[in-house]
Amino acid sequence: MITFDRHILSPAFTPNLTYKDSDLLNVMLVGRAPLAAACPPDRPYKTFADVMSDAKQRPGKPSIGLLSASGALLLAVYLQKSNGFELNQIYYKGGGPTVQDLLAGVTDMSITTLGALRPHFSSGKLKPLATTGDKRVPSLPDVPTLGELGLKTYPTYSWWGVYAPAGAPAPIVERIGRVRCLPEGRAGPLVQGDQRQRHQGRLSATVKSTITRVIVLKCKRACISTPLCQVSPTPCHDERGQI
């Protein structure tokens, strides 16, 4: 199974799941990318710090579109709670509608995946305000990270990983983990297009352990638990370069 970060968040948001995380085995991390904050070009914001300043002056007025049950939602709640401002959170069932309403000016801003926003940055239809990683994105060198703006935050990434059923034979799992990949910065078989520039995705990393701690974020609306993953680098091919 190939999945993305929402898989880890599902138990915190969805009661009565038909599976447990212990039913699955983490095999490898395919890639990761920071999220980005963006707004329509007619909004007065230049960076996310301007959004925070506006929200402090007009609590609950600036709106933010968020994919429900997502890392972006958890980050938005954390930013507000930790930095003392309040946004009007608008929830969406999918990333497509989130970006569509942002383009239409229905919401003042959004935090979502970089891949969904990059084409609109290039066309000038949306304006980047910040990225959520620990370093700037090479393809957006003029866009600061949230940390650079002085906000209390934590690095947040969307990621894509491979899972197998728990109890899968170890030789098969190890063979899957030895995927051949190209040098960092070039697109490998599983990563194409814009993804190759997404914070120099770590194609040669595998997930050695997952849930290591739980951060409990409390706000007026909810108490949400978000698992964090630890990633340990490992060689992605054997000595002969074969899968």
Radius of gyration using CA atoms only: 19 Å
CATH superfamily descriptor: Periplasmic binding protein-like II
Category from helices, strands and their pairing? alpha+beta
CATH class identity: Alpha Beta
Give the SSE layout.
Blueprint: E1 2-4, H1 6-13, E2 24-39, H2 48-57, E3 63-67, H3 71-83, E4 88-92, H4 95-104, E5 109-113, H5 114-123, E6 127-131, E7 157-165, H6 170-177, E8 205-218, E9 223-233
Parallel strand pairs: 3-4, 3-5
Antiparallel strand pairs: 1-7, 2-5, 2-6, 2-7, 8-9
Key attributes of the depicted protein:
single chain; 243 residues; alpha+beta; seven-stranded mixed β-sheet; globular; disordered C terminus
